[in-house]
Amino acid sequence: MNLFNVYPLFNINPVKAQGSFLWDDKGEQYLDFYGGHAVISIGHNHPHYQNKLKEQLDKISFYSNSVQNELQNELAEKLGELSGLEDYSLFLCNSGAEANENALKLASFHNGKNKVLYFSGSFHGRTSAAVSVTDNPKIVAPVNYDERFIRSGWNDISQLEEVFKKHGHEISSLIIEGIQGVGGIMIPKAEFLKKIKDLCEQYNAVLILDEVQSGYGRSGYFFAHQEFGVEADIITTAKGMGNGFPIGGVLIHPKFQATSGMLGTTFGGNHLACTAAIAVLDVMKEEDLIENARIMGDYIEAEIKGLPHISEIRRKGLMIGIELDRDCAEVRNSLLYDHHIFTGNSNDKTVLRILPALNIKKEETDLFITALKTVLKSLSAKEQEILTHKVH
Ligand SMILES: Cc1ncc(COP(=O)(O)O)c(C=O)c1O
């Protein structure tokens, strides 16, 4: 059997990882400045994470959600404490898309309405409702299109007001990323988020904050939107939550009433997934990783600001978008193949996406900074050479 070929692949086969480094099958070392797509929050194979999972494997790996699982309560308690959202409740699932799917459904159960407002540039996952509120025609199949899903402009307050004026009484929920990741690290303006909150309250629409990529300390806050003091009705999380172990979560405001059977999943909240997620929170707290995300993010920005070919840096903590004056592919490939550093791109071809582990060390960021400087300077040198040739 062949694999269904949907991923463009780099010809690199990592077989070992530790901290912020990977090694391939030829023994070559790579620096991971993309965290496997914002997933590696506490570094690869953190000893506490490994030990906890190994210990759990010797006890029990899985039983269904029809029995008590104390690990789920421990996870909820620790998550409430670290995020400051002790009065929210937690529903556990397996991925970001599934978390959003449940959030949209819960909102609709809650207020009985069926329209959803989303934003240009958004990415909320590839399952049914999640992809319907994703702004990328290439991944939305005809079966997912429906007039119930209404798009409004990013950071555009007047369009938002118009949409609410027209459809407000039918809007069940509004879904927005804490910071748009796939869209190219787009940060919402404080007044935009505040207006969203006001309109959601005015029209009894549920405010869903998708923190799948921007959450779990990446922005220098536990959840990115917390910087603005805006209270979400539902928050979704995944990626960094399990440091690679598949797990997603829906954090639900106390105003929502749970009823038996309302939501459900076979694998969500299983023993191994909870163990991984608990270990992540332990390390984040113990090693003060949210603070480290702020410090290292500030440092990287200060060091790369003003380099040639960078037109803008958009950043919160270690969620960094470096917009270039051209398609970033050449720079990204050179970082990977010439300097052995993984970085990411985004739907905006000019934006290099940088999402290292939250426990990245200064000397590791220096490797990236030096490499980026070299790559960008060599671009300038090449251009200069072409110009000189033209003149002669
Ligand atoms: C903001 C956001 N929401 C949802 C998702 C979907 O998560 P998953 O791939 O775990 O389904 C992603 C994945 O990139 C994301 O960035």
Molecular structure report:
With 392 residues, the chain is α/β, with parallel strands linked by helices. The protein folds into two domains: 130 residues, Aspartate Aminotransferase, domain 1 (Alpha-Beta Complex); 240 residues, 3-Layer(aba) Sandwich (Aspartate Aminotransferase, domain 2). Helix content is 37%, strand content 17%. The protein contains eleven helices and 14 strands. It has a seven-stranded mixed beta sheet, with helices on both faces. It has a four-stranded mixed beta sheet with strand order 1-2-3-13. A three-stranded antiparallel beta sheet has the order 11-12-14, covered by helices on one side. Helix 5 links the parallel strand 5 and strand 6. The protein is globular and about 75 Å long. It starts with 13 loop residues before the first strand and ends with a helix. The model has no long low-confidence stretch (mean pLDDT 97). The chain binds pyridoxal-5'-phosphate.
